[in-house]
Amino acid sequence: MQSIPLDRANRFLEPGPIVLVTTIDGGKPNIMTMGFHMMVQHDPPLVGCVIGPWDHSYSALRNSGECVIAIPTVDLARTVVDIGNCSGATVDKFQAFGLTPLPARTVSPPLIGECLANLECRVSDIRLVETHNLFILEVVAISTDPERLERRTLHHRGDGSFVIGGKTVDLRDRMVKWRHLQD
């Protein structure tokens, strides 16, 4: 075994796909790219997200308590990276990247029409924001596009390379302890 720097732990533990987060600040919608998130629990559905003061979306999320987590697919890979390389303080990202803002059902920030799914969220817990920039969000509505053909997601390796999700291994028959979580 070879030792590697500690700051590379995320390359082995990437919890899920790269997502886009929409917020609204002063009536202006913004989009940020985010890779540090995790499911916290199922019922109610809670998601932990790291969004720090270095992100333009941080103050919008702190002030409004609402956001949308949009799940992009591989066809948006370059757009996802480019969104993460600029700031909503100076760029209207919906316009710059040709994305379609759609009205959400329960929160003010918009959905992203080109994404596979959109999770409308409200901040549930901020106790770890000051120390770890970790927001706990409750998912309050979910929208998906069942007609969307591309369903493969992007998983960042922490070094600018991505793994493309898509192949499914079905082991539901072995999940005897967790059958209540299956469709």
Strand adjacency order, main sheet: 2-1-5-8-9-4-3
Q: How many helical elements?
A: 5
Integer count of domains? 1
What overall geometry do the principal axes of the alpha carbons give?
A: globular
CATH class: Mainly Beta
Radius of gyration: 17 Å
CATH topology name: Pnp Oxidase, Chain A
Regions with little confidence, pLDDT below 50 for 5+ residues = none
The description of the largest β-sheet is: 7 strands, antiparallel
Percent of residues in beta strands: 25-35%
Instruction: Spell out the CATH superfamily.
Output: Electron Transport, Fmn-binding Protein, Chain A
- The arrangement of helices and strands along the chain is HEEEEHEHHEEEHEEE
**What is the correct CATH architecture?**
Roll
Tell me the quaternary state.
single chain
User: By helix and strand content, what is the structural category?
Assistant: alpha+beta
Helicity level: 10-25%
**Counted beta strands:** 11
Mean residue pLDDT: 90
N-end to C-end Cα span? 40 Å
Cofactor: FMN
Protein name: Flavin reductase family protein
Family: Belongs to the flavoredoxin family.
Organism: Azospirillum lipoferum
Please describe the topology of this protein.
Elements: H1 10-13, E1 19-25, E2 28-34, E3 37-41, E4 46-50, H2 57-64, E5 66-71, H3 77-84, H4 93-96, E6 101-102, E7 111-112, E8 117-128, H5 129-132, E9 134-144, E10 154-156, E11 162-164
Antiparallel strand pairs: 1-2, 1-5, 3-4, 4-9, 5-8, 6-7, 8-9, 10-11
